Task: structure prediction
Amino acid sequence: MKNVLRQPVGDIKGIGEETSTLLGEMNIYTIGDLIEYLPYRYEDYQLRDLAEVKHEERVTVEGQIHTAPLLSYFGRKKSRLTFRVLIGRYLINAICFNQPYLKNKISLHETVTITGKWDQHRQTITVNELHVGPQIRQQSIEPVYSIKGDISVKGMRRFITIALNQYGDQICENLPLSLLQKYKLLSKQEALRIMHFPANHQELKQARRRFVYEEFLLFQLKMQALRKFERESSAGIEHRFDASKLQQFIDHLPFPLTKAQERVRDEIIQDLQSPYRMNRLLQGDVGSGKTVVAAIALYAAFLADSQGALMVPTEILAEQHAHSLKGLFSNTDVCVELLTSSVKGKKRKEILARLESGQVHILVGTHALIQDEVVFKKLGLVITDEQHRFGVAQRKVLREKGENPDVLFMTATPIPRTLAITVFGEMDVSIIDELPAGRKSIETYWAKHNMLDRIINFIEKELSKGRQAYVICPLIEESEKLDVQNAIDVHSMLSLHFQGKWNIGLMHGRLSSDEKESVMKSFSDNEVQLLVSTTVVEVGVNVPNATIMVIYDAERFGLSQLHQLRGRVGRGSEQSYCILLADPKSEVGKERMRIMTETNDGFVLSEKDLELRGPGDFFGRKQSGMPEFKVADMVHDYRALEVAREDASKLINSTVFWEHPEYGYLRSYINQSGIISGEKLD
Ligand code: ADP
Ligand code: MG
Result:
């Protein structure tokens, strides 16, 4: 039988050519498309108790006119009609703007139904809709569709009603019965009807729940299938080594590993030993001890006769990492070398030659590592730090320098679990969620801009003790030029203030990389005591003597970014401080400043950040690759996301999934996305 849902939408009575074209522009081509075109929100006309309505929420209430309506004019043609309404035991104010004719429609003691925005402080509703008499709507929750051109929301409702009545029984189930039963999910048919015409909130919630699960499951199936086929089609290196030798190395570290480090170490070692290629993301807050874990992995690779590479985004970081790795490997036969663009001439030639012959075991560097001249003898493990800073292409080039080396991406930007399992759904994720014992937490304060004098005194006090300070300048969105100007202004202000006492450095994005290096060097050598900077100091810089950071206009930054910045202090043994200068206007802005002062936990902050800003903003606009869901919301439905992920993983790895007819739709869904045929998934 031909599937009627695939017939063009023009087959529906009342939809002519013009409307068809408009619907086409909304990606609605078939009757099925129309039925699956879900409302993006609902207008709620259910009567509610004002005690439960939040400030600024939209509400519909029914009550009696308690005072005669008062009409006043202001401006040219503007008018305001005010009256009081008695709703149960509440007496509230109602205001109607620019609807003077309503005055004659209503009279004292009459019952009216009004819909509008509730101002809790003023006990006032700003009326959008007024209807004389009690609530009469049959459907008190009305769907609102996003629309185009001449199509109206009412029109959409009509088309969909016709489509559902005529063809609704043709809607096929796409989820297997076993899962529907397991989670007590509504059938697709029923859920679609409810999404378009909900009778009440409970029912709508159930329908939504079904689509949330469906969307997440389909998405996760795609990701997991990709992961499975990537793994199985790219044979990796089966690193074999003497586990007792690795244990010896770990035993000789200057400190015992934290529980989290041990867990992550095991996950990585297992990947190294497996015949599949490792593709793992290692997340850990600033100072959680990722470097040691990286060193253990590199040592395991070394024991298995493989070379390792550690790629970082800046020369300063490369130097720091090379230095710490040399320290950690000082009692072993491991040879670590540093390769950056500053390593030149004879020295460079010599390192490259020893790398090619296999005498250099671990190469640390910037993207200098991915140049053609860099040839490894046998590259088995690639680690990148702060992977956000490298493009996909750069990571790929590095990986191709060996034959399917294992790859570990390290990042100190704690990505909320919810996002990690969606955006990095095809990677394995390891998390170090524990700091080594005995860390001093950074004391964070929120101050208003008018307290700047006191803050400068505080900086002065710290500097007098021999400490150093960062001052992070106001951030002007989308204008690097203004950013720089701001930094220059703050720099000259502070230079003047501290004249003859301390040296003030200036760092911003317009400096050449040589200039940046030299500024950073003078700060880390304590030739400069106070560094004024734009956000370029964000990543990885380690100056343990710096104990104070002041951040201008802190409300403009995301919580995660503030946390990254704050991580530049608190790296030594002294108590460190972070001062957030901010005059946030909104409640959310104030809430964010409060959260910063209350927690030092990057994961808590990133979850909060996601909650307050939403997933789209989390990575900044430039970052694409965020999946779009019609109904589901990654933040609020994250439990469903985790459940769907587990289910998808079980299905993909079971035989019954690939054979049983019950899973036919899901299989064809995966096939359509081109994963199995080897095409890349975007
Ligand atoms: P990250 O790279 O995650 O920011 P690092 O690896 O640089 O953190 O570690 C920060 C500091 O903590 C280093 O000085 C390191 O030697 C130390 N460290 C790491 N692991 C431990 C541990 N288990 N116990 C005590 N100190 C540790
Ligand atoms: Mg680090």
